[in-house]
Design goal:
alpha+beta, globular
Amino acid sequence: MKSVTTRAGSSPWRNWAGTVESRPTREASPASAEELADEVRRAAEDGLRVKTVGTGHSFTSIAATDGLLIRPDLLTGIRRIDREAMTVTVEAGTPLKRLNVALAREGLSLTNMGDIMEQTVAGATSTGTHGTGRESASIAAQIREIELVTADGRLMTCSAKENPEVFAAARIGLGALGVITALTFAVEPVFLLTAREEPMSFDRVTAEFDALHAENEHFEFYWFPHTDNCNTKRNNRSAGPEAPLGRISGWVDDELLSNGIFQLACSLGRAVPPVVPSIAKISSRALSARTYTDIPYKVFTSPRRVRFVEMEYALPREAAVAALRELKAMVERSPLKISFPVEVRTAPADDIALSTASDRESAYIAVHLYKGTPHRAYFTAVERIMTAHGGRPHWGKVHTRDAAYLSEIYPRFAEFTALRDRLDPDRRFGNDYLRRVLGD
């Protein structure tokens, strides 16, 4: 299969949320790493900048370009499974949902994952996509080897042993160091998780947050603004037996309530904002307690069909409760009407240069608004609270931070930018977003 290249006059590219649009000079869909390298070399000859786009699930303009837009649609599938090393090597454009299903068929699984699985593996890891975990970290922390094309069109492999300084940074590389063509992940034999979902009051969950985190392998909760109601989720490994959600009850909770009726509620709230608090009180009581046991991706992930925009900040874990209480107080004294719940998750410290959990145990606070709802006032107020606690913004979600701020809160920021200077001195992989967050 040959690569497909579309010349001048390509149609606009838009992200999933509809918040970013760009008009590339041309697009390419290479079918191999070698073809991708050829496209990068050709772009350099033509003086074009290069960006790769996955499924567009980033809310920032991290993938936008006026040059060559690479679509990795033909770079999909598993290259190899090494059962001795317990690794899987997968093409960069493979959607997480396809990887999860394929691994399960082989009796394997990633250790941890986020709650959305629409993204490509390269897009998810490059922006620091994560789930929640006491000991298990982001998807990028599970990478064991990276294959990428550098700005001069070379194909480079990096790992802890080969080009280790590149590996240290490129696991969350923001698309600034090269174009990823394949990733090798650590995997383990598929296991069972028991999920326990339970409503809990805001005061109780914040008072017991440290204990809930310590007692569970994976703990997260949602707070519904304009209420004192939260929904908690505790995921822990289980010896079984498997006890999945019933087809009807699972559809009612995950499709009808969490997507269908929630979509209608959000649409109504956007059209008539004063009704939002009443809707929040009803919707926060609609999801009842439930317990089920299933394989990891069926527990960690859930369908998200209601489109939204999102801001998320990683804080030192010990600052999370104070920041969340400040957020709640801000919403209560403001005229804001917030229809989406606030999500709180955790992650252990890791050793990746630009990971939001780099060198510190972290808690994540994510805020969302329904697509098309004006978000600036809410997100600005939230960001003010998060930055006061030394927050690090998610690279793929809405934020206004720049290199001056980020260089202060990432101890290894200069290490990353120095590597970028070496690998991409001409900023072949640059764009306006990277100029803002990394500097020139």
